[in-house]
Amino acid sequence: MHVVFLHGIGDGNRDYDWLDGLNRGLTQAGFDPVDRADVLAPRYADLLKTDGISAKLPAITNKAKDDALARREFERRQARVQRLLRREFGVRAYGFNLIPDPVWNAAPGAVVDYLSMYDLDQVRRYIGNDGLRAAIMLRIINALPDDGEVVLIGHSLGSVIAIDLLDHLPERLHVRRFITIGSPAGIRALHEGSERLLKRFPYSRVDDWSNFLNVRDIVTGGRGLAATFPGAQDFMLTVRGHQADTYLGDPAVAGLIADALYPPAEPTAATGTDIAVRMSEAEASALLVQHFGEALARHIKDTERADRYRATLQILRDDLAAQLAQQAAGGQLLAPELQDLAAGRLPALPHRWELHEAIGELVVLALTNCVTPYEIDTGDAPIKALEDIAEALGFRRDVGKTVATAIKDVQAALSGKSGVPWGRVLTAAAGVALIAAGPVGLAVAAPAGAFGTAAIAGGLAAFGPGGMVGGLAMVSGLAGTGAATTAAALASGHGTAETAPNLDKLMMRVAAEHARKLLDLGYDSRLWYQVTDFESQVSAVINRLEPFNDPKSARVTQLTAAKAAINTLLQFMSANGLAPNAITDGGEP
């Protein structure tokens, strides 16, 4: 595999200092250096200094029309790159604008005009002169192989040329890894008066694209490329300066290139021990949600939407597998099911949940977005998937049907009266916050005022203490907590204007207990008192705020809607035999 390097302005890096920097980073990380014989570094400095060049732009070879599937696969590969780089010290993922957008959008004209030390006018000249563009691209294309794989690296102006080149490359030439460093391609002023580079990214011909920048590189302005080019993924480094050897010698950049040149061996699970490891509750919940996601996808009616859902589920499963493999490499013993997950296989569900517990899990599954942070409208597929999962757990399919009925009953009671939408997470302004947490059900976040930041341990964050949590045990454990602090928090204004009392967990609790009642199982009679306590707290806050707040204030409006929803829940519980026998609330005892 060749390493292709496209240089910036100057003499075209005739002394190969960029390669010295790369090899320094590779050898420090324990990899073999790249030999010059494996490098393609075409030079075009003479063309940049020549006026009046006339040439015809090479043909666009990227002719894909429907690239939706290719882009989803591309994003899956991008996710893997991010997992690799987030382990590196001093790497910050996603773009970071050192200069705010409004300022940077107005200033680059002056930067381009007066930043003579970097000659950014050469970049603008390249973009605006089709003859020059054509001549440079043709020279580079003629230096490249017609097929095979390459690692493509573009520095400064070379990054702009590399981006421009992507949809003109030979059809059988595949870019195994695309890396841009110190790129000014995100400066909008450079694109004014010319056709934008790379209108359509060739997702099927480029495995991934990582753009590296640093805050002291004025050529980039601290601005990444993702805002301009959807295929780019930005990473901020702590190195200083604009030189190519500085960027390529950074452990993160060198390591990413090494990953392409010297692919790591597939990790193997620990063997040679007779110790049987059982999954924790959190780990079992993670596996359960993976199965539920698969079942849910089967019931999504729209084929394209179902494909997108499966793709997002796979990305999350990749992330989970990577974490498990890392733990195994560190000597941690994994349960057999987790070893399968780490190897990319979805193991069968263990029959470890009793029926009473399983009902709670099913309710949480049906009302949780299993692919957070992605948002895909799945319609009624979660409800339909309940029967499949009930059977997979070792119970009759009608158990899932009964849980679905219970959820629909509570939804119907609330939807027409309270004005509070089901499915949106309503968060208490203090105490604890309950959020949809992707593949493991529900997670807890410390309130913003408790520890200085709302550190959310959600989704696939981590196993172990402070990591993944799931199942209705989380809901039931929280149903009675935070009540003493809720009133003070809501009255004092902690939290954002969008926060509201935590009703979702109460809705889930009521739905779960209703399902247990329908199945003639024991239900928790304490829930009535927890709901009434919450009603009292919310009412107290409304009474304190109403004399002073504007009549249509967001907080009072939310609290009033919450109070109505709580009252509806109490009426529903009373009507469905979930209230203590001695209590009635507008109905018969």
From TrEMBL:
<protein>
    <recommendedName>
        <fullName>AB hydrolase-1 domain-containing protein</fullName>
    </recommendedName>
</protein>
<dbReference type="InterPro" id="IPR029058">
    <property type="entry name" value="AB_hydrolase_fold"/>
</dbReference>
